[in-house]
Design brief:
- This protein has 100 residues and is an alpha/beta fold.
- Helices cover 28% and strands 30% of the residues.
- Helix 2 (58-67) links the parallel strand 4 and strand 5 (71-75).
- The protein starts with 5 loop residues before the first strand and ends with a helix.
Length: 100
Amino acid sequence: MTNIIRIGIDTSKSVFQLHGVDASERPVLRKQLSRREMIRFFEKLPPTVVAIEACGASHHWARLLGSFGHEVKLIAPQLAKPYVKRGKNDALTPRRCARR
C-alpha cells in the first residue's frame, strides 16, 4: 500500500467514508467501511494523521483510533464545509445510501 500521510473520515450511522492522501497530496485511498471493518483497517494501518469532523461520536472514535497510535485531529463543522463537494449534506443524501 502507498504511504498514506493523512486520512479524512466522514462518519455516519453505520457506514464510514475514508479518503487518504500521500505526501504529494494525491488521493490514494477511497473506501466505504462498516464500523467493524473500519476498526480492523485502522488496527493494521501504520500510525498516521486522521481528521474527523467534530460531532457527538467523534470523541469516541478519536480515543479509539488514538489507542492504535494514530494522531487524531477533530475539525470544527464550519471548517469542514470547504471539503464538501457538490453541496452535499446529510439531509440531501439519498435514503438508499443511509440504509447500507
